[in-house]
Amino acid sequence: MSGDRITFGIKGLDEMLSGGLIPGTVASVIGQYGCGKTNFALYFLWSGLLNGENVIHITLEERTGRIEYYMRDKGWDITPYLGKSLTIVNLDPSDFNLAINSVKNELPELIKRTGAHRVTIDPVSLFEDLFDDDATRRREMMRFLDRLRDLNCTSLLTSEADKENEFSSRYNLIEYLSDTVILLRYARGDSVSDIHLAIEVVKMRMSGHSREVKPYEILKESMIVYTEANVF
Ligand SMILES: Nc1ncnc2c1ncn2[C@@H]1O[C@H](COP(=O)(O)OP(=O)(O)O)[C@@H](O)[C@H]1O
Ligand SMILES: [Mg+2]
């Protein structure tokens, strides 16, 4: 795989991204609940850890203990990394001022202090929920993503899909602000039992990428993107 790219370690997905994410950019993974957003985020971090990188996972949904449990349950031995190259932070989005301050001020400091190469925020849509109006949300998110880019880490933000439109994130915003957008969705065939998970790279600034929709599977320890296959 090309050396200047940040790889997922998921062969098919890295191929779709022409080798991986571009260092210092912000990617978003958009999909309905259960599509595997958290799995993709954690796998992205695990690949970084195996490469000797420093990584940070910000979870707005689950306690840090749960994330540690998921990673161990996947058969990944995080013990040597935990508290060293792996930092997991739980942010409570119910406390508005605390959450805003943590994301805007403390996270950049943490990234600098730990020299993080990879940062995931899961799901960023819960952070977006904190802003009352579209104009403030857009302005704040734009600033925040620029801040992440300035810190030279490669970021992966997950977002729930809009309830009415599975091709869009909840606020129809993060896909415009991100450099790379990966869309996950359920693809249904003719028969009711014919359901696949489908992945698509819909946008990648400064790079060529695949525009094909490919099936993927979440396995216990890994994820597979079938680039040789079509969804139906
Ligand atoms: N060990 C496993 N083996 C197979 N599939 C799994 C395993 N663990 C999780 N999954 C699948 O992953 C889904 C949850 O993925 P998750 O990343 O939490 O989704 P999201 O964050 O998009 O809501 C589950 O519904 C299940 O289908
Ligand atoms: Mg999740």
Automatic annotation (TrEMBL):
GO molecular-function terms, A-Z: ATP binding
Domain KaiC span(s) in chain numbering: 4-232
Superkingdom assignment: Archaea
Matches recorded under SUPFAM superfamilies: P-loop containing nucleoside triphosphate hydrolases
Keyword Phosphoprotein found: no
Keyword list, A-Z: ATP-binding, Nucleotide-binding
PANTHER family: UPF0273 PROTEIN TM_0370
Name of the protein: KaiC domain-containing protein
